[in-house]
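ok trying again, last paste got cut off:
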Amino acid sequence: MLKKNKLVELDSKCFYYKKDKENGESVIPLEQIKYVDIKRRNIYVLVKGEEVLIKKFTLPNVKDKYILEQMIEREIIYYFKDITNMCYSYSIYGGSKNTLEIMVFCLNCNGMSKIKDIAFKNNIKAVWIIQNTFLEYFHNHIIQREFIFICNYENNLYLVACKDDCIIATKTLRLSLNKMELNYILEDFLKECHEKDLLMNDINLYVANIETEHLKPLDKNYNCIDLGVIDKEEFKAHMERRLKV
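nice, full thing came through this time. structure:
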């Protein structure tokens, strides 16, 4: 009997999924997604290797959710121009009687326009970003409300700035980690946050999947907490439990 829900993964080049009743993972180029036969399922998409673009908007305080979402979409189109490959979500983090402060999280991934090829025979239930999934995975080990998270996973380096339980900035780099680079990468990321008025008061640094020797330059300047290694199979099992697949 086939499970009702299915977890698949997506990056800028390929589509990844586990075949039914088979071991291992199938890797399909995005151009061939339309030939993938997943059956009729609820599909949960995990997007990895992509940067999340975060933009703050101040909008009129309207009670109608549909009108608010229309305003947000117009702002996104004005700011980004082409949203063909983009999906987004938003949260309200403040406001007044007349205005709302909106934080919009945008994901611009080539695969998003291709995913419609499997949506015809399936129900796309949710699109998740791997950065947020990492934070869920380590939730019980992160005690500060303001911190930077750095993770090296499948040859991508992820940096995530969080404040009051909200992601405020991200950066994703496709590079080989070098101990001489990591400190400079973090400094550049903090500088970008500062230029966007996303100020961090205390730099609590959580790291995962980074060898101890690479952390030495960071230990001198930051409160650095090593979360250890992410086992790929354990991480995927966590996702499947989380999404009940």
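cool. The helical segments are 65-80, 110-114, 116-119, 130-137, 179-195, 212-219, 232-242. The first helix runs from residue 65 to 80.
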